[in-house]
Specification:
- The chain is globular and about 40 Å long.
- Helix 1 runs antiparallel to helix 3.
- The longest helix is centred in the first third of the chain and has 15 residues.
- Strands 2-3-1-4 form a four-stranded antiparallel beta sheet.
- By secondary structure, it is an alpha+beta fold.
- Keywords: Monooxygenase, Oxidoreductase.
- InterPro entries: ABM_dom, AI-2_Isomerase_LsrG, Dimeric_a/b-barrel.
- GO terms for molecular function: monooxygenase activity.
C-alpha cells in the first residue's frame, strides 16, 4: 500500500482565531491515536497568522478514508466551520518518490 499525503489549508476568522486553534489542536491530538496516522501536524503560514496548513501522512488510502468517516471528526468540523472564513481547501497527494533518500521524508 502506498502512503497518502493530505494538505489542508484553513483560514481562521480573526475574531475567533483562538477558538479555532483550540479545535484544531484537539483534532491533531485525537488523530495521532488513529491507526495508520504517520504524520498530522498544523503549521502557520509565515506572515499570515490566520492561515493554517495541516500536513497529514497516512499509511494507506483506507486509513485516510477511515479517519474521514469518523463521527468525532464530523463533530469537530461542525464546530470549526463557524470559526473559519470558508470551507477548508483539501488536497490529497500521491507521492512520486522523487527526492534524495532521507530527504523525501513525506514518502
Amino acid at each position: 500500500m502506498e502512503p497518502v499525503i493530505v494538505v489542508g489549508t484553513l483560514r481562521l476568522r480573526a475574531d475567533r482565531a483562538d477558538e479555532a486553534r483550540e479545535v484544531i489542536a484537539s483534532v491533531v491530538e485525537h488523530t495521532h491515536r488513529e491507526p495508520g496516522c504517520l504524520t498530522y501536524a498544523a503549521h502557520e503560514v509565515a506572515g499570515e497568522p490566520l492561515t493554517l496548513v495541516v500536513i497529514e501522512k497516512w499509511a494507506s488510502r483506507q486509513h485516510l478514508d477511515d479517519h474521514n468517516a469518523a463521527p468525532w471528526l464530523a463533530d469537530a468540523f461542525g464546530r470549526a466551520g463557524e470559526l473559519l472564513t470558508g470551507a477548508p481547501e483539501i488536497q490529497v497527494l500521491t507521492p512520486l518518490g522523487y527526492g534524495t533518500a532521507g530527504k523525501a521524508a513525506l514518502r
